[in-house]
Design goal:
The protein is mainly α. It is about 70% helix and about 0% strand. Helix 3 crosses helix 5.
Length: about 140
């Protein structure tokens, strides 16, 4: 590998996806799809009347989780994802809708295919771990 290619190769998924603007674009598309697509009805129902707070929190979380600025931790401390999601009924259907919605959003904002595949695997593992009921 040449010195030049080492300097241009993204070091983190955050860099690979394109930084904050692209993470925001992904999060916004994710929540827009959740609001618009009938296939995500159960997932949308879990989120309450407005998605504004969820949009910001997911954006802040994903920035840090992908290797960028740790905005969520700066504001709220450790993510404690499972604990923070306990008040919400999350079963297999909600898990699958979350992952499908995120995968659709990644496709629509053109996340590079290799990164998209890697993220889908991680998202499914995390979403499955978040389940707090069977169905």
């Amino acid at each position: 590998m040449t010195e030049e290619s080492q300097n241009t190769t993204p070091q983190t998924p955050f860099e690979w996806i394109g930084g904050e603007d692209r993470v925001r674009q992904l999060v916004d598309r994710f929540y827009d799809l959740m609001d618009l697509e009938p296939a995500y009805t159960e997932l949308r129902a879990v989120h309450g009347s407005t998605l504004d707070d969820a949009r910001d929190k997911l954006f802040w979380f994903l920035c840090g989780w992908l290797g960028g600025p740790d905005y969520f931790v700066e504001r709220f401390g450790h993510p404690r994802l499972r604990m923070r999601h306990m008040p919400f009924s999350i079963g297999i259907k909600e898990r699958d809708q979350w992952v499908a919605c995120m995968d659709q959003a990644m496709g629509e904002v053109e996340v590079p295919a290799a990164l998209r595949e890697r993220l889908c695997t991680s998202f499914m593992q995390t979403a499955d771990w978040m389940r707090n009921r069977g169905g």
